[in-house]
Amino acid sequence: MIDVLLAKKFIERISQFVNYNVNIMDEKGIIIASKNKSRIGTYHEVAMQIIQGDQDTIIVDKENPQFGVKNGVNMAIYYKKRKEGVIGITGNPEEVMQIAMVMKMSVEVMLEYELFKQEKMQRRNLKEQLLNIILYSENLEREDWERYTKPLGLDENIIRIPILISIENITEGYENILSTFRNGSQHSSQDLLCLTRDGDILIYKAIKDSTNDLFGNYKYIVAESICDGLRYMRMADYKFRVYVGSIQNDFRYYRRGYEHCLWLKNMSSKEGSTYFYDHSNEYFMSILPLTELQVVYNTIETKLGDSMIESFKEIIGALRLVNYNLNDASKLLHIHRNTLVYRLDKLRELMNVDPIKNNNDREFLNGFYYYLKRKEKIYQV
Question: The sheet that has 82-90: what strands, in order across it?
Answer without folding.
Answer: 31-34, 22-25, 82-90, 72-79, 57-60
